[in-house]
Amino acid sequence: MRGRRTTPRQAIALTLMAVASASILAACDRQVETTKSSPRPVRTTTIEKRESLMPLTFTGRIEAEDEVSVAFRISGRLLANEARLGDRVEAGQLLAQLEPQNELSTLRQAKAALSAAQGQLTQARNHYERQETLLAQGWTTRASFEAATQARQTAQSQVEAAEAQLSSAHDLVSFTELRADAPGKITATGPSAGEVVQAGQMIARIARQDGRDAIFDVPAQMVRSAPADVQVTVSLTDDPKITARGRIRQIAAQADPVTRTFEVKVGLTEPPAAMRLGATVNGRVETSSGPVIDIPATALTRINQQPAVWVVDPSTNVVSARNVDILRFDQAQVIVSQGLDAGEIVVTAGVQALHPGQKVRVLGSEP
């Protein structure tokens, strides 16, 4: 079977196509060689170790620096309770009162006993004076005079005992009234009128007007690592612009049996009026975590399913990948715990287009 003959025109067209294809392939090879040989521009930063301040934040509440629970010294039925939550009280102001019938009866009995003792003392004194005169005149015996003296002393002792009982009865009557011992604000109230209360039972709790504390529950590790004289910045949770400063005033000697945290009291310096008792606040403390290495967040990439960075060899400008351990990070900065040393150069821009052994051209270093 005879093949088909190629005409001169077709031969010329095939030759031109072959020449064009060869030119295109040569141009592509030149472009690939140029791409492989030209360093990729990147931005870098030089690693430095810096002193880092690690902020610690806790949530707590505002309480009075000096808060006391007031109670009756005796038991009885509550006649009235004038204490109202949130009320301001002055020193000596009446807060509550017990029914005083029994105490008033005791007072009347003590007064009557004193009157009787005073009458007996008067009689004993008169008898003593008569015996003293008769003894001087020789009309009585020494024994009668000594008996009169003894009776006078006994009557005097009975009067003194009756006076003590009367004073105790007055105290019992006064104990039926509960008064504030200092100005402040009532933060809690107890039983209502008509209830029977026991001695020492809380009737009201008064926050005295001599300071404010911010109370926080802090883990034991933070208590041990906190500096001796640390300053705490306290701000309202619902309005962080309202702040106050303070220092740790007291740390609980024993941990809470449930949470295993320690109660820390921070004494506030001139707290604003908006920091009312019971308000929820945040406390912020900055503690030194020692020298750390920080890099821009743009330098971080992921290789072998682990965080990594590109390190530049300053002698050859060739990059190599290195896995690192991250301590903490945010949107702008990454704190590296292991994997980098001071003085090394790390790529911060262009990390996604690099491969191991690639040569780069440094455009500029970031501070």
TrEMBL record:
Signal keyword on record: yes
Positions of transmembrane segments: none
GO terms assigned for molecular function: efflux transmembrane transporter activity
Keywords on record: Coiled coil, Signal
All residue ranges annotated as the Multidrug resistance protein MdtA-like C-terminal permuted SH3 domain in the record: 292-352
Signal peptide stretch: 1-26
Keyword check for Chaperone: no
InterPro entries in UniProt: Beta-barrel_RND_2, MdtA-like_C, RND_pump_MFP
Coiled coil (UniProt feature): 107-172
Ranges where the CusB-like beta-barrel domain occurs: 216-287
GO cellular component: efflux pump complex
Family per similarity comment: Belongs to the membrane fusion protein (MFP) (TC 8.A.1) family.
Protein name: Efflux RND transporter periplasmic adaptor subunit
Annotated organism of origin: Bradyrhizobium niftali
